[in-house]
Amino acid sequence: MSKIYDLVIIGAGPAGLSAGLYGARGKMSTLIIEKDKTGGQIVTTEEVANYPGSIHDASGPSLIARMAEQADEFGTERIKDSIVDFDFTGKIKILKGTKAEYQAKAVIVATGASPKKLDCPGEKELTGKGVSYCATCDADFFQDMEVFVVGGGDSAVEEAMYLTKFASKVTIVHRRDSLRAAKSIQDKAFANPKIDFKWDSVIKEIKGDGIVESVVFENTKTGELSEHFADEEFGTFGIFVFTGYIPQTDIFKDKVDMNQSGYFVTNQNMETNIPGVFAAGDCREKVLRQVVTATADGAIAAIMAEKYIEHEGL
């Protein structure tokens, strides 16, 4: 029989590491299981300027390194494994990984969500170097520059309007000739003098040596290609992609309550519909997905997991 942990956390992003810190500080035996690299999306971010206190050496990797070190110092165990099955029906929760089976009195799922990508040449290489998936995170890096926003839904248009506070010009790039956003949101965008539109267009390639320097568009109706180059004054511009997110929750489908988009539905205590199972961070239904909200979710989930274990007498 394997060890029964007080708390097992799936995912080592900001939410998972925060939960690990609070769990271990609460004297619970705590294990974090991560299938990939520690840190999640934030480790691809060159600079983190909106997390409280992160004003010196504020890169994504350095912030995550400090979070991981702090969790480790309080006794959090961390291993690399991929959870492929589970059984949450009993008092003791069972998680089946590719390497081993794990048991816990409480589980926090902090598997995160991934932005939908353009899947074009140059996108991966220039992510964090002009290509972004978060206006709140990166807008101020493009003060007085030109930016492009890819997408036509509510989020894309709302983020485009937010970007006008920083950028000199914002162009919404949409593959159709009309937006999908709510009419009230569209009206505000059309009335904003800083917002322009590039209809019937998709990005075929992003070019640059270390930073975004040009972008190749394709007209979806004619197939015509055109290339836009950065202004000489700045030498770069921003490309913000808002075509949706994909929550990493597939294996829990039909067993843990989710909304139509696949995000866990929780209450303010991060509790799912299954007693002893909590969700934290970008994988749960929420209005703001940022490092600061993920760490808050993780802290709440760990505290409530401790209370659950005490209440159940486990």
Quick recap:
The protein is α/β, with parallel strands linked by helices. It contains 6 helices and 17 strands. Homodimer.
Task: Tell me about this structure.
With 314 residues, the chain is of the alpha/beta class. It has 2 domains: 4-115 and 245-312, FAD/NAD(P)-binding domain (3-Layer(bba) Sandwich), CATH 3.50.50.60; 131-241, FAD/NAD(P)-binding domain (3-Layer(bba) Sandwich), CATH 3.50.50.60. The protein is 23% helix and 26% strand. The protein contains 6 helices and 17 strands. Strands 1, 2, 3, 4, 5, 6 and 17 form a 7-stranded mixed β-sheet that branches. Strand 1, helix 1 and strand 2 form a beta-alpha-beta unit. The mean pLDDT is 94.
N- to C-terminal separation?
A: 17 Å
Overall outline:
elongated
What portion of residues is helical?
10-25%
Main sheet specs = 7 strands, mixed
Features:
314 residues, alpha/beta, FAD/NAD(P)-binding domain, 2 domains, 7-stranded mixed beta sheet, 23% helix
Task: Describe how the helices and strands are arranged.
Blueprint (H helix, E strand, L loop, with lengths): L3 E7 L3 H12 L4 E5 L25 H14 L3 E4 L2 E5 L5 E5 L3 E9 L3 E3 L15 E2 L2 H4 L7 E5 L3 H10 L5 E5 L9 H9 L3 E4 L2 E7 L6 E6 L5 E5 L8 E4 L3 E3 L29 E3 L11 H22 L2
Parallel strand pairs: 1-2, 1-6, 2-3, 6-17, 8-15, 9-10, 9-15, 10-11
Antiparallel strand pairs: 4-5, 5-6, 7-16, 12-13, 13-14
Subunit structure: Homodimer.
Protein name: Thioredoxin reductase
Family: Belongs to the class-II pyridine nucleotide-disulfide oxidoreductase family.
